[in-house]
Amino acid sequence: MIVAFSVTPLGVGEDVGEYVAEAVRVVRESGLPNRTDAMFTSVEGEWDEVMDVVRRAVAAVEARAPRVSLVLKADIRPGVSDGLTSKVETVERHLAR
Fold first, then answer.
1. Mean pLDDT for back-to-back runs of 10 residues, the chain (97 residues)
2. DSSP code string of 10-23
3. Among 6, 19, 63, 65, which one is most buried in terms of CB atoms within 10 A?
4. For residues 36 and 39, what is the distance between their CA atoms, to the nearest angstrom?
5. What pTM does this model have?
């Protein structure tokens, strides 16, 4: 499964990069395939391991912020691996035509 999620600290002002970095650090240290862009961090793995990473990423922000917003989108597709790469490669292949 692939989960794209965004963790946003609330009540800490407009500069939230330092808080978001704590969440991204948790994801990167998990060892699961992941990508971060301007809006979301995507992580790929089995249900329990991915949800554990999301939970710990939220906890990392929650430890420093009075309130946390979580947006999560999941692509649950058993038997598929390396979806983070293959989905993008498919789109790029179609664009190259």
1. 97 95 98 96 96 98 97 92 86 92
2. ESS-S--HHHHHHH
3. 19
4. 8
5. 0.90
